[in-house]
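User:
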Amino acid sequence: MTAETVAPTLSFSPIASCYDERYQAPTQLLMNCYDRLVTYGALPAQGVILDAGCGTGQMSLPLAERGYEIRGYDVSEEMVAAAQKKVAPNQHAKYMVGDVRKLPEQDGAVDAVIACKLLVHVSDWRNAVTELLRTLKSGASFIQLNDAVALENTVRDYFGKLANEAGFENRFLGLHPAKEYELVELLDKQGCSEVRVDVSDLSWSREISYGVILDQFKKRFFAEFWPIPVVEYERILEETARWVDRLPMGRNTVETIVPRLYVRAFRKS
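Assistant: Predicted structure:
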């Protein structure tokens, strides 16, 4: 996949079959997070939830278990199929192929929108936000829900440093992760107010070996680096692998990662 083939909205179809291998927030932590959102008034106790950029349904299926009606949209047919396959017979969840910049939803049709790492992959992300707000009822919330640092590790940092040195610093198609203030400014202009929700204690830990991380790079798990042309990508990966192999434990080096849930909610006026 080269820079020339990246779509205006990035599709995860190439890794749909192994997407859930990358990481997954523990279901109980997600449940605790949703409890907090209800307590703080950012999420209704029941209702219709729009999962924007739903992927394989990791973030919204726990809500379906609680009786919410889920409408998930993603540009990847393969990701949508994987999500729909997980839906239990007694759950009201429908995952559909759709572009978050133009959704087949009526104005004010949903009780909340959740989005996990979506806007970084949408080139005209401002239009996507405007469209998502259109689908929200008055007083409903647009919720940014991420599993912070879940994919961050020393090997990825090293690969990223080499990518930067090679001139591939502008790798994000949409909203840059370091510029979330642009989203806050846009939502403020749209008349939204932030609902403060404290989930700072919702974290977990996992161990991963450098060999596994290198295998993930070979499978091109990390969408951030997809815009790098294949020849350059493989060169950077080879240099990263040589660096790993020079370490005392080489590919058997194990790193402990402590991801945490990160939430920002904005109520529509």
